[in-house]
Amino acid sequence: MRTRFLTVLALLGVLAIAVTGCAAAPPDAAAPGETVVTWAMWGSPAELATHQSVADAYMAENPDVTIEILSEPWGDYFTKMQALWAGGDGSVIPDILFLWPTPSYAAEGVLENLQPYIDRDGYNLDDYWPDLLESAKYDGDVYGFPRDIGLEVLYYNKDIFDEVGVPYPDETWTWADLESAANQLKVVDDTGRVSRYGLGMEGGKYMLWVLQNHGALLDDYRNPSSCTLDQAEAVQGLEFFANLMATNAAMTSDNLNQAGGDAAVFQAGQVAMIIQNASRVSAFNAAEMNYDVSVVPIPDGGRRAASAGGAAWTMSAGSDNKEDAWHFLQWLQSTNGGQRIYTASGEIFPALQSTAMSDAFLNPDNPPANRQAFLTEGLNATVGRFGYFPEWGYLSGNFVSPHINQIWTGDLTPADAAAAVCEGVNQYLQDEGFPK
Questions:
Q1: What distance in Å separates the CA atoms of residue 296 and residue 156, rounded to the nearest whole number?
Q2: Which CATH architecture has domain 8-149+309-356?
Q3: CA–CA distance, 106 with 93 (Å, rounded to integer)
């Protein structure tokens, strides 16, 4: 199996040469015989091993089809493909590829509209978690199938909790309980140096607190007219997170990154809790950690607000093998196919509810014990972490993230940062003619 390198940027350039729009209807089925379906994604060696096992399982069931994996680690994904795009080699176009954010690429005309295939074959969309498919739609049609749902739960180190005598978290915990526990669990030496923090959480997950407190970033996540991050509910969510860092109850974003990320500090016992998605489970199990998970605490009067979004398997509009690609794509997103294998690997919380409620996920022999926490958060999944329109990437990168990051560095208060975000966002929306 030969190796090629793919990146999202190059896909846009190469596919734009070959494609001028999205398919209005699915093509006729391909002639029988051996076919090759090219399948592109990024991933670590461990992730690629799982991808290969998925491909092998499909080929065992479909011996006339060869799945050819095209991969590159995330760190090199864009630069490698940029070079291929500059060379104009159309042979790098994959049939199925992993992408995020789907609406942006759909707007470029490089992705196949999956809605005609879904309607023709009756593919079941009702099995997906609430609002999850919204992240993969463009102009009301589905252009991709999220492999998993990136919702967060609260991981906690049971040994540290037992050592300090703090009760384990449960569904009754509020923000106040989380803050109190984090302060009890942190360790500060005589010099004032913190040797253990209560909580580690990536700064980019700040919208969890905003949404839990009934706040929002935009008034509409598909066709916004204004920024709402400067409203009281949203600012209070930012303030809660910022205060945890300011009091050393939680690690700052910079310290967390410098220490190697949340998984590293959790395994090293440098934090007692982290808030993260299911991607950490396999590593913690391999390390034989004594840990469990719980739902994320919410404020008094707040709500659960898990993230309904994730990278999606999509089909290239430039594919010359669409029927075989569609067959593979359906299998990838089936409880007895790819979803089962990925879930059993322990690397994801599956996009399909039926898979999450099967033994592939709820196997009692596999930690964490309280896997029900993922299900509880999944049933409360909602939109709101990001915009579902093509311009969102530019808007976020230029007007949102820079000011939010200034909160975690202490350069701006949450209120001032939110005001700066909304000033830039509102001007951009006005200049670009939103709402459209």
A1: 11
A2: 3-Layer(aba) Sandwich (3.40)
A3: 15
Q: Let me know: does 324 contact 65? Beta carbons within 8 Å.
A: yes
279-313 confidence digits (pLDDT tens):
999 999 999 999 999 999 999 999 999 888 889 99
Cβ atoms of 93 and 14 closer than 8 Å: yes
Distance CA 94, CA 67 (A): 11
| Dist. CA 168–CA 234, nearest whole Å | 28
pLDDT of 426 above 50:
yes
Buried b / exposed e over 167-195, threshold 16 CB at 10 Å, is eebeeebebeebbebbeebbeeeeeeeee
Residue 105, classed as helix, strand or coil, is helix
Q: What is the pLDDT of residues 357-382, one digit of tens each?
A: 999 999 999 999 999 999 999 999 98
Q: Which residue has the higher pLDDT, 92 or 348?
A: 348
Nearest-angstrom CA–CA distance, 147 and 352: 8
- Look-up of token digits 């991808």: 51
Q: What percent of the chain has pLDDT over 90?
A: 74
The two three-digit tokens of residue 144, written as one number: 């991709």
The answer to whether residue 146 scores a pLDDT higher than 90 is: yes
390 three-state secondary structure: coil
Given a cut of 90, whether residue 247 has pLDDT beyond it is yes
Backbone φ and ψ for 72, nearest 5 degrees, come out as: -160, 135
CATH superfamily of 153-307+384-431: Periplasmic binding protein-like II (3.40.190.10)
pTM: 0.88
Radius of gyration of the chain (CA): 22
pLDDT, average across residues 5-11: 36
Q: Which two tokens stand for residue 384?
A: 């709101």
The set of long-range contacts for 337-341, using a CB threshold of 8 Å and a minimum separation of 24, is 337/57, 337/58, 338/54, 338/57, 338/58, 338/147, 339/147, 341/50, 341/53, 341/54, 341/57
**Average pLDDT of span 317-343:** 95
Domains 8-149+309-356 and 153-307+384-431 agree in fold: yes
Distance in angstroms (rounded) separating the CA atoms of residues 411 and 283? 35
Cβ contacts of residue 12 below 8 Å, gap of 6+? 85, 105, 108, 110
For residues 201 and 275, is the Cβ–Cβ distance under 8 A? yes
- Going by C-alpha positions, the residue among 334, 399, 375 that lies closest to residue 127 is 334
Taking the mean position of all CA atoms in its chain, how far away is CA 310? 4
Q: What is the mean pLDDT of residues 99-122?
A: 92
